[in-house]
């Protein structure tokens, strides 16, 4: 496997986490305008993508492979919990 192939392999592994974090950050900024006013979009996306990345790695380690429904459930929790925590401390 070439270095470029390895890069794309890892990027595609983490793309669902980063994409879901971006979608949730946009939804938070749109739906909870008053509560999320002090939070930057990049901050929401950064913490959500970090949580999603950790969730993907944990799911891969525990379940043994990518693409299982339990792994995707863990991914949703990994993305949502940091963003929920950011909204709860900013009140």
Textual characterization of the structure:
The chain has 91 residues and is mainly α. It has one domain (3-89): Orthogonal Bundle (Rna Polymerase Sigma Factor, Chain: A), CATH 1.10.1740. Helices cover 80% and strands 0% of the residues. It has 3 helices and no strands. It has helices at residues 3-31, 41-63, 69-89. Helix 1 packs across helix 2 (41-63) and helix 1 packs across helix 3 (69-89). The protein is elongated and about 45 Å long. The mean pLDDT is 91.
Question: How are the SSEs ordered, and which strands pair?
Answer:
Layout: H1 3-31, H2 41-63, H3 69-89
Helix pairs in contact: 1-2, 1-3, 2-3
Tell me the total number of β-strands: 0
* Unreliable spans: none
Q: What is the CATH class designation?
A: Mainly Alpha
Shape verdict: elongated
End-to-end Cα distance, whole Å, is 49 Å
Instruction: Characterize the main sheet.
Output: none
The average pLDDT value, as a whole number, equals 91
CATH architecture annotation: Orthogonal Bundle
CATH fold name: Rna Polymerase Sigma Factor, Chain: A
Strand content bin: under 5%
- What is the percent of helical residues? over 70%
Radius of gyration: 14 Å
Structural class category? mainly alpha
> What's the domain count?
1
Number of helices: 3
Defining key terms:
mainly alpha, 0% strand, Rna Polymerase Sigma Factor, Chain: A, single chain, 91 residues, elongated
């Amino acid at each position: 496997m070439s270095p470029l192939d390895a890069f794309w392999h890892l990027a595609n592994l983490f793309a669902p986490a980063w994409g879901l974090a971006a979608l949730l950050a946009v939804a938070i900024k749109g739906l909870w305008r008053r509560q999320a006013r002090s939070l930057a979009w990049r901050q929401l996306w950064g913490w959500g993508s970090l949580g999603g990345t950790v969730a993907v790695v944990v799911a891969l380690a525990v379940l043994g492979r990518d693409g299982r429904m339990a792994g995707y459930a863990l991914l949703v929790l990994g993305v949502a919990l940091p963003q929920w925590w950011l909204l709860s401390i900013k009140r």
